[in-house]
Amino acid sequence: MKPIRAPFTPAVLALATSLALAGFVLPAHTLAAPAATAAPAVMQSPQQIVQQIADQMGAALKGHRAEYKKDKSKLVAVINRILLPHFDTTYAALLVLGRYARTATPQQIDAFRQAFYSALIDRYAEGLVNYREGRVAILPSRTGADAGRRAIVRTEVTLDDGRKVAVDYVFRRAGDGQWKAFDVVIEGISYIAAYRSQVGEEIRRTSLDALIKRLQSEGGKAIDTLKKQGTQQ
Predict the structure, then answer these.
(1) 24 three-class SS
(2) Position 206 confidence tier, pLDDT thresholds 50, 70, 90
(3) Is the pTM of this model over 0.90?
(4) Most buried among 2, 29, 56, 87, by the most CB within 10 A?
(5) What are the percentages of helix, strand and coil residues in the chain, rounded to 5?
(6) CATH number of 10-29+42-231, picked from 3.10.450.710, 3.40.640.10, 3.20.20.140, 3.40.718.10
(7) Which is nearest to 181 in space by CA: 197, 189, 192?
């Protein structure tokens, strides 16, 4: 089966991967109405989390874009500080590894988790700092039978050329009760599914250890290679 060719341009995936809707206007009226008694910060809803990350990234980038362009490591540190507390990298890594997670050791899974997400953030940090224009609206949420365990924050990003892109953030409730994001769906295409295909092909060609080492040594360049190989299948 051919790998999914996702429309993950640097600008769009920079927004999606980091959940960083920086510089965008998120109209307050598109958010769910707050409860009569505000919930503790540690028990934020998925919509509140997306809003908070947007606010924090916007504040962090304002007036500092030139600085981050010169030193991308500073921007990476900012993204990690704002994003990682709200992203379940372990669960997402297991989904990306797919069937290969069943035979991997805990050490391999953790090494892949760290290397893969470090490479993703490295690859798309530049797209984030360069992307200035646009608007995003948080759309009404849809609930299902598993509403207490999973949630989708639906957004519509209007790019500077007028195009509209549907970007949905998929959350799950972690063991401690907090909501954590684990997948991003752009125009109906899950980045978990797209990268699972590419990662699986790389592991079949070489090995999980070899992939981890390449991600660690090449960073964002390894992500580019995975995508290129995926389009050639």
Answers:
(1) coil
(2) very high
(3) no
(4) 87
(5) 55, 15, 30
(6) 3.10.450.710
(7) 192
